[in-house]
Amino acid sequence: DEIPTVVGIFSAFGLVFSVSLFAWICCQRKSSKSNKTPPYKFVHVLKGVDIYPENLNSKKKFGADDKSEAKNKSAMPKNSLHLDLEKRDLNGNFPKATPKIQSSPDLENLSPEHFAERKKDSVSPDSLKSISSLSSEDKQDKLGTIFFSLEYNFEKKAFVVNIKEARGLPAMDEQSMTSDPYIKMTILPEKKHKVKTRVLRKTLDPVFDETFTFYGIPYSQIQDLTLHFMILSFDRFSRDDVIGEVLIPLAGIELSEGRLLMDREIIKRNVRKSSGRGELLISLCYQSTTNTLTVVVLKARHLPKSDVSGLSDPYVKVNLYHAKKRISKKKTHVKKCTPNAVFNELFVFDIPCEGLDDISIEFLVLDSDRGSRNEVIGRLTLGSSAEGTSGEHWKEICEYPRRQIAKWHMLCDG
């Protein structure tokens, strides 16, 4: 009888000891865990700085002693990115510090001679005064310089264009004596690739540093292409002002050895002078019984050149007005790369009043341009107050309802 009693007493003491030891261990772990800084695994992406594992050669590790820290700081280059994770707050953010100006990675690869030339070309306050004292003819001749680089990636079969900056642009805003520049780039002659940079506010020396990569262009076709840079100034209330253009034929430019840095003077936009804006063939029919107006946009011919490629992508926008208020709008499909387009598209408009006395219809022929605002090639307005062939056409459809009447009309400036 004594043996089972002794075994039970020892078992009870062992159980109490085990529970107490387990509770003490849990308390120690909890207290040590609350005193440690949580190991953050995510790093915020800084704008303009590449943060990838292969670029963080001097990244500080957790648990490093003071000696290794001093050694890392002394061995760290000036331009490398250093992340001191222990200086973060509880939310994982860095304390605010005075921002430092960093140079672009592409510009760091330039030779000292190139920097000397850039320093020589930089605009000083004295040079700004001398520029302001120039005559109006000299100001028109000097439109600035654009800096860019070209490269071909053979592994990805991609053509890479980096638009770095522009210098010495003219002021398009007479009040603030500055501009809001951006650059629109097109690869000619097919005009398939159209891109544009962001708009930089109130500057005559914009630094874009934007890279555009065009895939699917074989290296053998690079020699047949031409780059067209259009430098514009953004205008919120009207059409953007054209500062100038740069045309770069790629024939004879060798890109097999790597990146090529280039700069070109901006020249005045070459707009071909034409006797007119082209012609538009329109067919109209007024149905007095249903009080509807049927409009057929048939053809356009002799449209002027809208860019250096000599080809436009025209389409027609039709606006219906009642007492000078637009009440309806339609548009045709885009016809690619042609100055003589065939549309053959029919639109039916409901007339809100009896008769066509207060009705007018406007035709806008535009050039479709991806990535920027479409340019107006020509304009045509038909109505009771119109003159010439437009007024005669309108008079005929009023006198002969239910009859489809077609006529050619000359387009005027948009």
Please outline what is shown here.
The chain is of the alpha+beta class and 414 residues long.
Helix-strand blueprint:
Blueprint: H1 2-35, H2 66-75, H3 105-108, H4 112-121, H5 125-132, H6 136-141, E1 145-153, E2 158-167, E3 181-188, E4 194-196, E5 207-215, E6 226-233, E7 241-249, E8 260-265, E9 279-287, E10 292-301, E11 314-322, E12 325-331, E13 341-350, E14 359-367, E15 375-383, H7 389-399, E16 405-410
User: So what's the oligomer here?
Assistant: single chain
Which of globular, elongated, flat, extended, rod-shaped describes the shape?
elongated
The end-to-end span amounts to 116 Å
The strand order across the widest sheet is 5-2-1-8
What is the element string, with H for helices and E for strands? HHHHHHEEEEEEEEEEEEEEEHE
Q: Major sheet, described briefly?
A: 4 strands, antiparallel
Helix amount, in percent? 10-25%
GO molecular function, one term: calcium ion binding
Family: Belongs to the synaptotagmin family.
Keywords: Calcium, Cytoplasmic vesicle, Membrane, Metal-binding, Phosphoprotein, Repeat, Transmembrane, Transmembrane helix
Main location: membrane
Walk me through this protein's architecture.
With 414 residues, this protein is of the alpha+beta class. The chain is built from 7 helices and 16 strands. Among the domains are: 130 residues, C2 domain (Immunoglobulin-like, Sandwich), CATH 2.60.40; 134 residues, Sandwich (Immunoglobulin-like). Helices cover 20% and strands 32% of the residues. A 4-stranded antiparallel β-sheet has the order 5-2-1-8, with no helix packed on it. It is elongated and about 130 Å long. One of its GO terms (biological process) is negative regulation of secretion by cell.
